[in-house]
Amino acid sequence: MLIIVESPAKAKTISQILSGFKEFQGSYVRASKGHIRVISDTNKTVDGKKLEISGIDIDNNFNPIYDIDESKRDVILELKKLAKNSDVILFATDEDREGEAISWHLSEILGIKDKSQVKRMVFHEITKNAILKAIKEPRDLDLNLVAAQKARQVLDKLVGYKLSPILWKTLGNYSLSAGRVQSPALRLICGREGEINIFVPQEYWEIRGKFVPFSSGISINKPNSQRTTSTDFEKLIQAFDSQRLLPV
After folding, report:
1. Are 246 and 212 in contact (CB under 8 A)?
2. Which positions ≥6 away from 227 have C-beta within 8 Å?
3. What are the C-alpha distances in Å from 198 to residues 27, 152, 201?
4. Phi, psi angle pair for 90, to nearest 5°
5. Is 67 in a helix, a strand, or coil?
6. 84: domain range?
7. Residue 69 resides in a domain
8. Which string of b and e fits 232-248 if b means at least 16 CB within 10 Å?
9. Fewer CB within 10 A of the terminal residue: the chain, N end or C end?
């Protein structure tokens, strides 16, 4: 059995826990040390087609193209060797979209043909009981979480590559960057501020009341979206002047 976590410290602790159990003798616990692949910064073509942004095939559903993180090549080589000698591979990366994506990338790059060997183990504390329970109750990879992480990566690159150069050119500050969250948030704030600046206050009245059926057929339907001016209010009061009003 091969268990892969993100942190070397976590790998060491789990290894110590499992060393006390005979059934786990010969098992391995190793760390990926975070992400092992990144969206390519050098791949600018796909099937002879030039990419508008390196590493992202915009015309193919924004499909990302990955490169191995050069600093993780030795880690990957070791994991591949251990995976070949393991009947079960358990990915114990963090339980969030980044952790799920790391597990998916590992499953892709380790060259495991029999996908039934690959499972995901999840725990929320590094204790003996929690680790044993996670090993006994593995699950499949959550591909929805993986897709969410891919979308986050692609958006980061699309927004950063397109908008950051505009900031540099406009403001002359090359330390600035545009983000997928801060940029649209700033746009919303600026748009709202513009609406506030051109707003012209207008007095209005809100009418609430309970009325007996009208013989005169006067309609008093005033949706919340409609605001009654003082002139409209006076007209309504005159129309209701001869009607019987109930106390509210």
Report:
1. yes
2. 202, 204, 205, 206
3. 69, 36, 10
4. -110, 120
5. strand
6. 2-146
7. yes
8. eeeebeeebeeeeeeee
9. C
Whether residue 119 sits in one domain with residue 217: no
pLDDT(143) > 70: yes
Residues 134 and 205 grouped into a single domain: no
Question: Does 153 fall in a domain?
Answer: no
Q: Are 168 and 176 in contact (CB under 8 A)?
A: yes
Tokens of residue 83, six digits = 């995976």
In a domain, 192, yes or no: no
**Could you tell me whether strands 89-91 and 66-68 are parallel, antiparallel, or unpaired per DSSP bridges?**
unpaired
Backbone angles phi, psi at 205, to 5 degrees: -125, 145
Task: Give dist(CA 53, CA 43) in Å, integer.
Answer: 9
Q: What angle do CA 72, 77, 82 make, to 5 degrees?
A: 125
pLDDT in tens, 153-212: 999 999 888 888 888 999 898 888 888 898 899 999 999 999 999 999 887 777 666 655
pLDDT score, position 114: 84
CATH value at residue 14 = 3.40.50.140
Which helix (H) or strand (E) segment holds residue 147: the answer is helix 143-171
